[in-house]
## 1
Amino acid sequence: MLIVVKRVIGALMALAGVALTALGAWFATQLGGEGVARFQVTPSSGTSLIVLRPDLLNRVPSPVQISATTTAGGTVWIGRAGPSDASAALGSAKVLDVTGVAVREWTLLTSTTGTSAAKPLGGADLWREQTTAQSSADITITQDHAPETVVIQATKGSISSLTAVWTRKTWFVESVVALIVGVFLAVAGGLLLIPRREHAGTPAAEAEPALVAEPAPVAKPAPVAEPVAVADTVDPAESTSEVTP
Amino acid sequence: MNTTGRGGLVRRLIPVILTVLALGGCGVSDALVGVHPAPVESPQGAPLDADAAAAIATRVLDEAAAAIAGKGKTAAAARAAAMGGDALVLAGTGKASADAPADPLSTAREPQVLAISAGREWPRAILAARLDSDGARQMLHVLVSASAVEPFKLVASTPMLPGAQLPAAGDLAAGAPLVSAATTLKVPAGSGLTLAPVQAAQAYAAALAVPAPKANPAVSVKDSFATTLATTAAAQNKALAKLATLTQTHVAATKNLVGFRLADGSAVVFTLLTRTDTIKVGAGAKEIVLPAEYKAITGKAKATKAVTLTSLEPVILLVPSAGAVTAIGAEEILVSGKAS
């Protein structure tokens, strides 16, 4: 019973170790030494307004850089503001809402909300920071004024790509640690799966004997000569009885 | 003692412990990768920080100063873009004094932000102080953003009276409650005002009338503006003697009234009074000769019946939570007149 339990635990450890090793190796190679997580999305044609909210921007204590590129000849405007201010400015405008990230594919998850046409947003005084540029622009959220919302508007053309980059060296370190721990677990689990053998000089407590020698047959005792009856003086010529040993 | 039995127990426990640790660490928890819930926005406090408010005040005041002096439709459009409320009314008369934009290389006329309205709703307002272009008078300016998509505009711009003091508005980050024409006395107990802002303006205006001011114990007219008005009116009546009589009425135009609650519970209120000076030629006089200023505004050198002069008086009233309302800022701008 004990052997079965050990082997089950060993198998679980080995599986966990292999999984952790694979996960750690994958993240380490994907993130690189600087721990850069880059997510991207290509909006559908005609997208002119994108919003990134605190649930995406302010959940990791690291700066996040947002970059947007327009179609050829376009102009892009990016602004950051408090969440309620940004929502008030957007109203019911049709926006592409970035709702999360897909780590396996390194993509941004989006959904479309709102219905009305967007008005130019750059003239309002609620933006804490805003930038306008031809073709592409970027903004960095430092987390100092969280929570914040970032709004991206193509004042000319439409938005052709959006990238969000988080840089956190801790992630690379953690992935390497996971890889090492995974290897250790896999090895330890494997060792538990391998049957153990007795070694010379090691105490054989509780070890079953390898060979049980059968006891040597007990030797029959040598026959004891019965004493010969000693006849009285007998004339040999006259005696007729046989003398038997 | 059986030492092999104890060592075997330990060796049995080690894989169990390691398995627990491994399985516990294998799940990539949010805490492990540093992911936490997004912070929640506070609905309280000022919606802008002091630096942002100062930058907005600088931009708006300079835009307004540049727009006041111009003439024609283009200038009118520029004024409408930079100004609103009573400031736009005064600018539209063409008589408001033009304040020169500040020198961007000089800090002498950088606006000082005194208060920012509290909360996340609109309208939002900024109270700022800046010396006028002559450096002689301390001007108080109110900027208002009416909605999320509208930038701040200058809605009130009034000089402080010599020696007047404005109580502190408190921590800028905490914000100051906004006061408007709709603010009544129905406020939480212990934080009320002696008069509602509109009533305060009406009572002050009535207390300035000549020859029969309507005194109100809740309003003080001992400020330099009211004293000067009374002294000047008295001197003019004395000079006119029996040839003519001067009457002066002040009416509070509170449609664009705006203000802030201050840290001590009082309120600083910006509003506009319309003053009408009527000089009626007496029966014993044939005509009166108008001074140059009146001649310029009326287009006539003499009047045989009456002269009516209209002035706009932007005023700053301090409405306390206890005590009398006082004026801490005011000026008069003669905008129109007629003589008959």
## 2
Amino acid sequence: MEKGEYRVSLDNLFKILGVFNLKMADFFGDTAAAPPAAASRPLAKEDMQILQMIRHLSPEGRREAMEFLEFKVRREQTDRRAVENRRSESETG
Amino acid sequence: MMVERYDRLLREAQGAFAAGDLQSALRHFEAAQVLASGDGDGDRADRAACNACFVLIELGQAEEQIPRLRRLFMGTLHPRNRCTAAYNIAAAYLNLEDFDNAMEWADRSSELARDIDEPSLTAGVHNQQASLALRFSRFEEAEKGFHLALDAMESLGETLQAANRATVLGNLGYALMCTERLEEGLNLCEQARAALDELSADNLIYENLQDLCYGYILDDQLERAHAAGERALGLAEHYDDNQVMKNCLFLLAEVAVRRGDAFRGRRYLRELAEFYPEIEMNEEIIDVFLTTDLTNVVNLRG
């Protein structure tokens, strides 16, 4: 490969995206933990600002930001599960 | 006497071609062919015929010209005519977006050009070969080719070649921007833009403006990128050049995203998506474009 990596035309890029019907999750890891409504809706301005900030980070900074976001997602998931458990216990008990 | 009339017809045809009057150029080339044939001068007749084929390619009749040019190529031993025929066959394949065949014939014309002392043809051949290399992302090969084209143009009259030279400079600028020589590349593209603006060559400038938009994005000069991209988009629309329109919409979306204007970015991308009705374009694909920096993934000449 010569200096300057191989690139594709915009047409081919669209074909690739169309064939694989790539999802956001394929680019940004597993988003299954997020609530379905938030994961499937188009990005809002606030989401864009977050992504903008991430794009300005160094690789190390990105890794740290990802770790923090994963921690937050896990934490909220655990909290949600705890709330649901308490709710179902009070309903049955 | 015939030679004088023939040369005059060729000059008039070239002038009409440069002015964008393709029908007039075609008439003059065909008249020159008839004149030379009538006089039994096969080489001059072939030369005029080759040029007429080139005009017809520009007029959208590329497919029909390939067998005609192949016959001209096989039927002559004249080095210049063989080279021109090969060059024009490559141009026809390029027009038909058959890039492998275009490259094969461009290589052939380049080999033939080595034995011909004709700077304008040599410059054209090198520019064609380098442009194809650029399309295949072979940036270093493209850079060498554009330099060879510029070297060949050195000996030519400035006014006749000004537009061609500016186009080659712009091409070279884009090749440099793709190989991490942004400042040098931008500088060449700006030189090309100044020359083409001076010539009012709107039909040639919009691809150059597209490249400038790309360069200014990389250089984080977003105002300039936006201005160049919008102007390129308008002109590409006027000249019905879908490829440049698509590239500009993609680049302008990136400018909008970098300015934090996701709404505008999405608007450009939805417009871009309309060029691909065969692809089920959902918001997720648009999000991929909005959230991923693809500027160094896409070859604008690809």
